[in-house]
Amino acid sequence: MEYQPIIGLEIHIQLKTKSKMFCTCDNVSEDIEPNTNVCPVCMGQPGVLPVTNTQAIDWAVLSALALGCKIPSFSKFDRKNYFYPDLPKGYQISQYDKPIGINGQLILEYLDKNKKLVQRKVQIKRVHLEEDAAKLVHDPTTKFSLVDFNRAGTPLLEIVTEPDLRSSLGAKISMQELRDIFRYLDVSNCDMEKGQLRCDANISLKPEGKETLSAKTEIKNLNSFRAVEKALEYEIERQTKLWNGGKPPKEPSTRGWDDAKQISYEMRVKEEVSDYRYFPEPDLPPLEFTKDYVKEIKLKLPELPHQKRERLIKQYELGFPEAKMIASDRLIGEFYEGVLSELREWLSSLGEKEKKIEEGIKKLRKLTASWIVRDLFKHLSEEKIGMEQCRITPENFAEFVTYIYKEEISGPAAKIVFAEMFNRGADPSHVIDEKNLKQVSDKGELDKIVEKVIKANPKPQEDYKKGKEQALQFLVGQVMKETKGKANPKIVADILKEKLS
Ligand SMILES: [Zn+2]
After folding, report:
1. Residues 288 and 369 in one domain
2. Under a CB-based contact definition with an 8 Å cutoff, are residues 154 and 132 in contact?
3. Ligand 1 mean position to 19 CA, how many Å?
């Protein structure tokens, strides 16, 4: 029997407002002494009154609009009551039946495991605002649990999807797409390691061709993209075994994910909504959104990742994988287009004719994209920095790819130049001069070196004459070594073929 996974996500995103959701405490919970960033409001002292952070409201509306949600004119906050050590007030201020945004969608495009392009729309049920709870720190040596209230009361955006996902990969891609969108909006850094983006996943299985579903299992607090994918894969396997054993899950359950052991484990039976005794928050006025207000916020929407992706493919004829990577980061997308606008100038400065310039630009668009996707991303992730800290300017990058295009530097030399540009913001022409990396394309000069290499390597020479193509590659490599990577490999191969035939 085949089973189809039915997956929905509940995503939490920490907004990077200056202050907390309902008080004036700084919205900083990382890298400071525990319990130093608190006040009577976020600690739930008697008699205090919360005040709504308007920046958080504006950003929640902006976020909901970016996800294509409708913004109802009326919204309000509610108390969600439960008793837990991380909740100082004994209730969380959240939103129950009147969220800020409803009925949106998330547009996903990705290559599946067979490299086939998948396009899918995931319906967004709701987007609402709430306050975050404190952080529990479990000390394994003393076995005590300590509470750090610095995080209590920080603004949290919750996004609930319909159960539209059908694979663990789709769930992971959804999270990545949301991260990209919220970084574009500049309302959250979405660093999963810091808990700024977290997710609970609901999953049940449906036997192929039938309408009956097993009871829903919720996996709590998934805090890396890998964990989202792995936990769901594990659950699909676990629940498939239960179905095959004739005992599909009948009761809804809540499970945790043990990342070290790569297993999920039973936590507790999930509370029903009625257990939370929701009621309207009496200390906060309801929210009313006029049409003009929504229009004004809508004007602040930037071009979103999926829109940029589509445009890069159409406008610059990029392939899907390159376009997806470049569009995943707003600054990298801007950088790419910045380089392209510099390229025309560089090619004109070489005294090329208009037709030749057009041809050149077409090639250089792809060349630029591949250097960004392959080398720039690699260097950024190795240095663990974001594009905002990158020292390479679009001008220098344009100059750099023009050198490659004009075959003035070889592939290995280009790698050296790029690393210098990345590490110290160096000008490519300076690096080329400084390290004497200009490609040798002069036939006379290369001729002598090729002679020398052939003499020193009689065996590959024989092999090539017997028809072994790799032998030629070996000899080209030897010439490259001899010239410290400066020889033009195409010309070297031509000379070798001529001499060996
Ligand atoms: Zn406070």
Report:
1. no
2. yes
3. 8
> What is the CATH classification number for the domain harbouring 463?
1.10.10.410
Q: What is the pLDDT of residues 265-303, one digit of tens each?
A: 988 665 566 689 999 999 999 999 999 999 999 999 999
Helix (H) or strand (E) holding 253: strand 253-258
332 and 411 assigned to the same domain:
yes
DSSP 231: H
pLDDT, tens digit, for every residue of 394-424?
A: 999 999 999 998 888 888 889 999 999 999 9
Residues 342 and 382 in one domain: yes
Q: How many helices (H) and strands (E) does the chain have?
A: 16, 15
Tell me the CA–centroid distance for residue 158 and ligand 1, in Å. 21
Contact 238, 264 (CB under 8 A): yes
CA 429, 430, 431 angle in degrees (round to 5)?
Answer: 90
Q: How many domains does the chain have?
A: 3
Ligand 1 midpoint to CA 333 (Å):
38
Last residue of a domain, one of 434, 457, 484: 434
Between the CA of 148 and the centroid of ligand 1 the distance, in Å, is 13
- Distance (Å) from CA 191 to ligand 1 centroid: 23
CA of 25 to the centre of ligand 1 (A): 4
Q: What is the pLDDT of residues 84-103, one digit of tens each?
A: 999 999 999 999 999 999 99
Dist. CA 96 → ligand 1 center (Å): 23
197 CA distance to ligand 1 middle (Å): 22
CA–centroid distance, residue 132 to ligand 1 (Å)? 12
CA of 195 to the centre of ligand 1 (A): 19
| pLDDT for residue 209 | 83
457 and 344 within one domain: no
Range of the domain at 469: 443-500
Selection from 129, 203, 180, 194 nearest residue 159 by Cα: 129
- For ligand 1, the distance from its centroid to the CA atom of residue 39, given in whole angstroms, is 4
- pLDDT at site 359: 86
Query: Do 138 and 175 lie in a common domain?
Result: yes
Q: Is residue 395 part of a domain?
A: yes
The Å distance, Cα 316 to ligand 1 centre, comes to: 49
CA of 42 to the centre of ligand 1 (A): 4
Which strands make up the sheet holding 91-94, listed edge to edge? Answer: 91-94, 78-81, 279-280
- Quote the pLDDT of residue 117: 93
- pLDDT tens for 101-150 read 999 999 999 998 899 999 999 999 999 999 999 999 988 898 899 999 99
Residue 220 lies inside a defined structural domain of this protein: no
Q: Is the dihedral of CA 485, 489, 494, 496 positive or negative?
A: positive
Predicted TM-score (pTM) of this structure? 0.87
Ligand 1 centroid to Cα of residue 43, in Å, is 7
Domain boundary among 264, 298, 332: 298
